[in-house]
Design goal:
The complex is a heterodimer of chains A (291) and B (280). Chain A is an alpha/beta fold and 291 residues long. Chain A is 49% helix and 12% strand. A seven-stranded mixed β-sheet of chain A has the order 2-3-1-4-5-6-7, with helices on both faces. In chain A, helix 1 packs antiparallel against helix 2, helix 1 packs across helix 4 and helix 3 crosses helix 4. The N and C termini of chain A lie close together (6 Å). The model of chain B has no long low-confidence stretch (mean pLDDT 93). In chain B, helix 8 packs parallel to helix 9. Chain B is built from ten helices and eight strands. The chains are: A alpha/beta (291), B alpha/beta (280). The interface between A and B is large, with 45 and 42 residues. Bound molecules: guanosine-5'-triphosphate (2 copies) and magnesium ion (2 copies). One guanosine-5'-triphosphate sits at the interface of chains B and A.
């Protein structure tokens, strides 16, 4: 793992009081390898390492730790800072209901996350209405209804309406019935499918959500930057959710997506059960990525 | 990559970037870069097309090394049993719909087994797909033991003289020991009726997934043995380069690729097409 690799690297360059260009380049190669193996995007890893390198050059190595530990310490701090710089609380509406819209690629975990978010909010005393504007996926409506039933949450019923109609109807229902929150699930879509991207923008414009969450699979590889950038451009989303982090993927997509969008990671999904949700902890994610 | 550039540091970085960003992994990238540097030492007359040619040639070599014999479906006695597995959300159920449609077009009778008894509306989802494909289905109530559904499905396939039986399973992370045990149990129970079953075990991988796909392939293969891979969502921008190390290290071939959400969006894997798309 990284600490051992860096210890070995620095062992070969003995007797240095300061971190300089020469002794750090080998160490940076090791860190870069670790980041790439963790699925951090190539360009993001390059920029990140460059930035951290400039911060660590000329730094006096603390007496109590080795140069290797010093480098790791700096990287860890910088990574935690980058991952969780801004406060990541869920947006609230001054006039209920708070409208939360969820979007992302196919199979990333959006529908399951909507139910999880609803349960999470109910534990905080907030009553939410679940709705799905997914008119494409076979049995999408059934899926959300089954999940809704399991947490005693009502799902806005729809039949033959279009995606935008459903969204508007759900917000209307939430307003009339005095819900605190309405959570709108959308169909999975490719960022390069212009019709589907137009649709999700149309939904956004129709209901003006307070919060738009980009739900991304925690195992996503190099492509994370492409979909994240495209969704940001069209939707200007306000938060990120990373799912399936109960697996053993390192989750470098967290750094990639955060770096190219600047939006905060608000939640992580850590299991299939409806209570498997957690607030994002940047320090835990940093340790996971650096291994 | 622009044509006719010289083989300098910037050029090397560009190649490296393209390879890494295809999810082919750092090891394979370094292997290919070493190969390029070696060729450059021998012949300084290098330009873009030379480089691309070498990379494509090397990739083709890796993929050809894994030329496991095509599982000849005709050799197996009826019903031909296909078990479909993979982690959550990769496209198993959708792929089964596409496979059912393909076999129906070939004039075969197809039965689907709704052995995902866990996920919300999984059975309903597969039921809609089987109608689109024109296949039959064996399903049971939510929460039933998946192995017993698989067992009943195989019995039904035999008694109805079905050509192809395709078994859908719940998505599961390879890190969950009990869920991997469940797959082993499904396999054991199928063998009680038909020793060669499952005749084909397909692992469905999402092209968007990074290095974890290699781990998934290793773990699923260790647990129940994988005959072929279906690489889905290749209609997106992800390149799916991870199948190169999977082929190289595990010798598991990619059989199909998923190119969309319609019942016809399934194609046989073609390494030439794949390699060309990988490094464009
Ligand atoms: N292990 C694990 N599985 C998850 C997690 N989140 C979702 N899943 C599973 O991932 C699969 C896909 O989840 P869905 O909620 O259907 O994903 P989706 O984004 O709504 O999919 P589409 O609507 O088709 O785009 C299901 O099997 C879920 O149970 C998670 O955090 N961990
Ligand atoms: N664009 C695209 N989407 C796909 C493809 N294959 C599947 N999908 C979509 O991916 C999502 C998940 O597909 P499913 O078939 O439910 O995946 P699964 O592996 O059965 O999911 P679980 O059973 O929950 O583990 C759905 O929205 C599908 O329409 C593909 O080749 N291209
Ligand atoms: Mg969904
Ligand atoms: Mg499924």
């Amino acid at each position: 793992e990284l600490t051992k690799k860096l210890e070995y690297t620095f062992q070969k360059l003995k007797g240095h009081g300061k971190i300089n260009e020469k002794n750090i380049s080998e160490a940076l190669r090791e860190v870069r390898r670790t980041l790439l193996e963790a699925d951090v995007n190539y360009k993001v890893a390059k920029d990140f390492i460059e930035a951290v390198k400039n911060k660590s050059l000329g730094k006096e190595v603390l007496r109590s730790i080795t140069p290797a530990q010093q480098v790791i310490k700096i990287f860890n701090e910088e990574l935690v800072d980058l991952l969780g710089g801004t406060v990541s609380r869920l947006k609230d509406s001054s006039v209920p209901p708070t409208k939360i819209m969820v979007a992302g690629l196919q199979g990333s975990g959006k529908t399951t996350f909507c139910a999880k978010l609803s349960l999470f909010l109910s534990k905080k005393g907030k009553k939410s209405l679940l709705a799905s504007s997914d008119i494409y996926r076979p049995a999408a409506k059934n899926q959300l209804e089954v999940l809704g039933n399991s947490i005693n949450t009502f799902v806005y019923p729809y039949d033959k309406e279009g995606a935008v109609e459903i969204a508007v109807g759900a917000v209307e229902e939430a307003k009339n019935r005095g819900y605190d929150v309405v959570i709108l699930d959308t169909a999975g879509r490719l960022h390069i499918n212009s019709e589907m991207m137009d649709e999700v923008v149309e939904i956004k414009n129709a209901i003006n959500p307070n919060e738009i969450l980009f739900v991304a699979d925690g195992m996503t590889g190099q492509d994370a930057v492409n979909s994240a950038k495209a969704f940001l451009e069209r939707l200007d989303f306000t938060g990120i959710v990373l799912t399936k982090l109960d697996g053993d993927a390192k989750g470098g997509a967290a750094l990639s997506i955060r770096a190219v969008t600047g939006r905060p990671i608000k939640f992580i999904s850590i299991g299939e059960k409806v209570d498997a949700i957690d607030i994002f902890h940047p320090d835990r994610m940093a340790s996971r990525i650096l291994g | 990559i622009s044509r006719g550039k010289k083989f300098n540091q910037e050029f090397i970085e560009n190649i490296e970037e393209i390879l890494i960003e295809s999810d082919i992994g750092i090891e394979t990238t370094m292997y290919l870069m070493d190969e390029l540097k070696e060729q450059y030492r021998k012949n300084k007359n290098f330009d873009t097309s030379t480089v691309l040619g070498i990379i494509k040639k090397k990739l083709k070599e890796i993929m050809m090394e894994c030329n496991t014999p095509e599982i000849s479906e005709r050799k197996q006695e009826k019903p031909y049993v296909i078990l479909v597995v993979g982690v959550n959300g990769t496209g198993k159920t959708t792929t089964i719909g596409k496979l059912a449609y393909k076999y129906k077009k070939e004039g075969k009778s197809v039965l689907l087994s709704a052995a995902d008894t866990f996920r919300a509306a999984a059975v309903e989802q597969l039921d809609i797909w089987r109608k689109r494909a024109g296949a039959d289905i064996v399903k049971t109530k939510y929460g039933a033991d998946p192995a017993s559904v698989a067992y009943d499905s195989l019995q039904a396939a035999i008694s109805r003289n079905i050509d192809v039986l395709i078994i859908d399973t719940a998505g599961r992370l390879h890190t969950k020991v009990n869920l991997m045990e469940e797959l082993k149990k499904i396999k054991r129970i199928l063998k009680k009726i038909k020793p060669s079953a499952p005749d084909e075990t397909l692992l469905v991988l999402d092209a968007v997934t990074g290095q974890n796909s290699l781990t998934q392939a290793k773990e699923f293969n260790d647990a129940i043995g994988i005959d072929g891979i279906v690489l889905t969502k290749l209609d997106g921008t992800a390149k799916g380069g991870i199948i190169v190390p999977i082929l190289k290290e595990l010798k598991i071939p990619v059989k199909y690729v998923g190119m969309g959400e319609k019942v016809t969006d399934l194609a046989l894997f073609d390494s030439e097409t794949f390699i060309n798309a990988l490094i464009c």
